[in-house]
Amino acid sequence: MTTEAKPRALNRLQSMYALRAEVDKMYEGGVEASEEGKPVAWVMLEGWSNAILNAMGVSTVFPENYSSLCAAQGVATPFLDRSEAEGYPTHLCGYARTCIGYSSRMVELDGEIPPEAPAGGMPKPVLLVASGEVCDARFKWFQSLGRFFDAPVWTIESPYPGLRERLMEGAHERNVNFLIKELKAFVAFLEKLLGKKMDWEALEYTGGGTNEINRWRWEINELRKAHPGPMNTRDFWSAVTAALFRGAADPDVITKGFERMYDEVKERVDKGIAGINRPERYRLSFEGLPPWHSLGFLEQLADRGWNFVIESAYRPPRPITIDLSKYSDPMERYVRRRYRRLEDSLREDYGPEEAEIILDEIRRDGTSPRMGLRHIKDYQVDGVILHVLLTCRSTSAGLNLLQHRLLDVLKVPSLVIEGDIIDVSAFNPAEALRNAEAFEETMDHYRKVRKELGMPW
Amino acid sequence: MSYYLGIDIGSSTSKGVITGDGDVIAQHLLLSGVNYRLAAQKLVDELLAKAGVTREDIACTVATGQGSANVELADQQIADIRCCARGIYSIYPSVRTVIDVQGQSTQVLRLNGEGQIANFVVSEKCASGSGRFLDIIANVLQIKLEEVGPLSLKSKNPVTFTTGCAVFGESEAVSRVAEGVAREDIVAGVHQALAEKISSLVGKVGMEERCAITGGGALNIGLISWVERKLGVELLVPPEPQFVTALGAAIMAEDTCKDG
Amino acid sequence: MAEPSKGLLRAQEIYQDRSRRALELQKQGKKVVGYLCIYPVLEMMTALDIVPYRIFGDMREPITKADSYIPAVNCPFLRSCLDLGLKEKYSFLDGIVTTHICDVGSSLSGIWNYTVRTPFSFHIDTPHTLHETSLEQERGLLEDYQKALEDLTGQKMTKERLQEAVRVHNEQRALVRELYELKKQDPPLISGVETIRVIKAIQSIPVDEGNKLLREVIDEVKERNDGPQKKSARLLVWGSILDDTALPEMIEGLDANVVMDDTCVGSRAYFGDVELTNDPLDGLSHHYLVDIKCPRTFRTRDYTDVRKDYMTDLAVRFSYLRDYVRDWKADGVIMESVRYCDTHGYDVPGVRDYLDSVGIPSIYLEHDYTEGALAPLRTRVQGFLEIIE
Amino acid sequence: MVRIYFAGIDLGSTMTKIVIINDDEQILAYVVHHTGAEHRHLANRVMEEGLAEASLSIDDISFVMATGYGRINVPFADRQITELSCHARGVASFFPNVRLAIDIGGQDAKGLKIRDGKLLDFVMSDKCAAGTGRFLEVIAAALGIEVEDLGGISLRSKQKVSVSSTCTVFAQQEVVNHLSAGVPLEDVVAGLHDAMASRTARMVQRLKVEPDVVFTGGVAKNAGVVKALEENLRCPVLVPEEPLLSGALGAALLGKEHVLKALARGETIQTGERRLDRATFFEKE
Ligand SMILES: Nc1ncnc2c1ncn2[C@@H]1O[C@H](COP(=O)(O)OP(=O)(O)O)[C@@H](O)[C@H]1O
Ligand SMILES: Nc1ncnc2c1ncn2[C@@H]1O[C@H](COP(=O)(O)OP(=O)(O)O)[C@@H](O)[C@H]1O
Ligand code: SF4
Ligand code: SF4
Ligand code: SF4
């Protein structure tokens, strides 16, 4: 056996580093703003509040992201322990528990930022903006922060209807109106809190900037369909933070960063360079949130020739031009730009034919097994890793069902890996590797099955 | 003639198989004890002696099992799930589902027609669903391992264990004895709980006949019968179920060697 | 032990064989619709003569089938419900209504549709805040729900029918409260175990029959002399789902009576009436969103207030517990939750803070929804009783 | 002057303990036996031995308080009380300033918040053998060493390894893996103690760790765990001279208080029948 030093298995994108640096800047910006006496809000990752807050001159920081930062730097555990000491059950969301522990520590320090906090820390909030979008933890969690800060909490209520219910006559318009009113109530609240008026023009700017960034991200993802996959999910995760948790960062800078990333990925595609420095034996998708504490695990998988060419979380929306000319109300424009009719987005994503099949299934069964599988097909994925999180119900509850659907519809196998976003003790890398080895045979098997069925990959 | 060696260092027992020309030349088993390295060395030595060959005669060695890293001789380490699949396929090519009950964990495999793993699942992080639970109970009730299975089949009224913990199962069993509960009802209770866990695992990968059971658990006719009842199918039991994984490893060794 | 006489005995029979009546009625041509949690606005089912049938799990049945559809790190109650669904225990249902109780609850509706495939299903995306817009939204959702139920039955839900249904359901609420009044005595006239049986029974049969049963139970309990013994401690139980008598049985096997509860197979659904508004949907949406005090809803004093104070906030959210403790003369509170319930889990320190601030002792018990796992909690409960003694 | 006597019996999952005191709270006798599998029916025997040591007869005992896992099954007990209260009481009699007591026995681990000798709040481990005395017993047995020796062995360690498995059975495997890889025994045992201590420390955080912190129960006899606990809690930990006895002593003391209170109220004390017959061990469900 040769023992020459092999190059690292992952082939990182250079353009990612600049974007990652922007994230640190964003936190530093938050602390600076706070020191200058500007209002700082803690917010969730959801589509609505961030741009509104920024348009109102409020700096935003993202505890969810901050928790993953703590986990990635290996300093989350003391915060988790503190949350437990405060009496919060250990199965609660790892992001929430890290944040609760952080808040508790801040109280102990009379509101100062803990010296051990990475990236300069999160300054004390004047406002907490919770959200019912994505999961319930996200409003229960901010509610429970009342224990540490007397900052007011606003919960953005957004519709989360069942699929069939979304198709009912009138439901879409009702949801749109609901959102418009809800967000206007939020603006009114902010105006009261800050004693100043909303800058609607600024909203057009902050709210519109997202589209430009997302367009680049979309284009990058389109490139990732190439064989071999030019960009590993590890780089995606490192960079995505800059796009999602922009806070007060300058949208132009971020846009430039992704533009550069596009160029780099494009170059790789042209030259046939992969996101891993090994032959691409398997193309995979990662479903669920990443194990922020153990991203190095991907290196070991890459060494086996596993290339995670795509992932389920945080995929950018398809860029489309929506005719907003008939809407003059800035909030209505803001909402309609993003909240789409289910029929429309299905048609755009799946093409008219498949969309009709899906819609029929939804009308009949209330669900369609095909949804959420498009990327598996598009990226010609051999296998899927399902990351079942000990502490996140919302992203884990449906994963086993997805496992069935992947097999039923696409004949693509999946492997469950149990772990957590934050809590490193929930993850057993040795066992995961052992199972990964066996999973290769399973992927081989289904390659044959798909071939027999005449499927394209 | 070339010989191939498969070594399976399990949590409770270490197993080795030597093949040559596609036949099993020798097999050997000993307790893993508290030093896998020593166990592996001893196993290899005794196995070679049994087969009447020397280390130099072995063309390739594959190690598998929990302690596979401790087999110094190994050319390659391969996950036990894969070895198990290969082993059973060589014995029963028609098998599509395998239940592998080991000392510490249980895994269920689905195979395609070529002995490849089409799906698999491994039991969770708590040992409450493993053969170990049975060992503990047998030990505390002072019943030989070979006898727990047959004894459990006599039960009309299996007890339900309130603790899920394999370790605390011991004190619970003792308390049941003190209450006058028959020993067969206690062991039947453990078997029933195990069979339930196994059937839930089988549910996850989907059942396809024929179905075989391997590992040390397959030596337990009681367990087999409880699982058969739960699943409603008949289980194939290979003649030497504990050696299936080691045999698979030896076959893998042969393949590896031939592939170069 | 004395034979429980008429009403209680009937409740116990229904508790043990829940579906018998629903199946009978189904044979007579009625639709039986299952529902999860207390939010699916039962009045609207009753108005169309649908038999609402609450879906429960079974603590005594190991979960073997559901694990391949929902990972084990999720609410074991809901996993058990799905498990029973997969074992065809709910295959007689004509429909199922789910609401956005919690994340797993809403995921479950999709999973149920994919696996159990009950012919009719509807999901109400009940909002989580008390914002004015949320109230309007709930009302709008109920309009859709109305349409769906009308399609299912081919009947019109007239204002009159709905008002009548609201009236009978309010009657049920009043009767349950009357029953709970009887728990104020010392010893209480009806035990925690019996209470669960009665509540579970009325959640298995049509509302008018439930009312009849409640009347029988109340009459009987008022007269009884075989009721619970006097014990050293009177307890309030707060928490998540508790659809089995195992926990109160364990508690009442010790030196304590469960005299009041705030759980969702207990008082939670019945305290507070639906206002009979001109358009019944107004009263209903208000009741289900605002009046029901479940941690799933984000409740604040005044959501437009820019100031915030933790203790005031706690008082707004939990002072009803202090009132319960006072009126039912409870000596302590057991906070109980199934494992992996985020909704209740986040509230535990807050409830504790509040109870501490008003001098009420409390203890938190987490269990994984199996009967066996409750027994080991006995020492904790007993230790708690020794503390409050 | 007529003396009255009280007995406290702690029927633990692993050890059975009895303490006999007089009304001056002097310990007249104590007996400790293994509850071990062969001789589970121990209650009467320890009582007999205790009485013999104190030169008393069963009728001299005014009140017998039983505690511990098998407390329901002491036929001659007048009352049962949880080991939570008994440990708190017993520990407070040794260390009046105790604010946090940690008890690790064979079957579970507990944290007790104590103020002025009174139990205010507590936490208990879940039904899992990891983090209990049994955890150490199982692993010691697998390694072929005595539980009593674990402490001394671990104190020799210079560089403990980390043991991450949460399950006893899997931890045993992990230990074997470490040993096979050539890690010295003392480093592995120290790792086990640390795993146990950090688990316990996390569990008791909610009660606020403030001195005096007292560690009792059988595992407190293990100097390695004591040291690991001090490291994990970052504060000194006091251990009673005979940590096994806290529960039984607390039971006897609580028995005495119970009697005095009753007498003060002019009530007669209700005592059970004094039969020293075979006890069945565990609680019936
Ligand atoms: N003669 C027997 N009868 C019944 N069960 C047995 C017998 N021998 C071994 N077992 C069971 O097999 C298990 C060990 O299986 P094995 O496959 O050797 O495990 P591992 O590979 O983890 O060492 C033991 O835990 C025991 O329950
Ligand atoms: N001399 C000793 N040295 C170290 N550990 C001991 C010693 N004696 C007992 N133990 C530990 O104490 C545990 C029993 O503690 P104990 O408090 O008596 O528990 P229980 O009350 O449940 O019987 C045993 O599991 C063992 O690990
Ligand atoms: S989705 Fe999951 S990880 Fe994200 S906040 Fe909710 S519970 Fe936490
Ligand atoms: S409950 Fe028992 S078997 Fe399960 S993890 Fe804990 S020690 Fe292991
Ligand atoms: S117990 Fe909690 S997690 Fe389960 S259904 Fe109720 S609210 Fe949801």
> What best-fitting shape of chain D do the alpha-carbon axes yield?
elongated
Integer average pLDDT of chain D: 88
What percent strand of chain A? 5-15%
Largest interface: A-C, 66 and 71 residues
* Structural class by sheet pairing and helices of chain D: alpha/beta
Distance, first to last CA of chain A? 34 Å
Straight-line distance between termini of chain D: 45 Å
CATH topology of the largest domain in chain D: Nucleotidyltransferase, domain 5
Q: What proportion of the residues of chain D is helical, as a percent range?
A: 25-40%
Q: How many DSSP-defined strands of chain A?
A: 8
* Envelope shape of chain A: globular
H-E order of chain D: EEEHEEHEEEHHHHEHH
Determine the structural class of chain A based on helices, strands and strand pairing: alpha/beta
CATH architectural grouping of the largest domain in chain A? 3-Layer(aba) Sandwich
For this entry, what is the oligomeric state of its chains?
Answer: heterotetramer
The counted number of beta strands of chain D is: 9
In CATH terms, the superfamily of the largest domain in chain D is ATPase, nucleotide binding domain
Q: Compute the gyration radius of chain A: what is it?
A: 22 Å
Largest β-sheet summary of chain A: 4 strands, parallel
What is the CATH architecture assignment of the largest domain in chain D?
2-Layer Sandwich
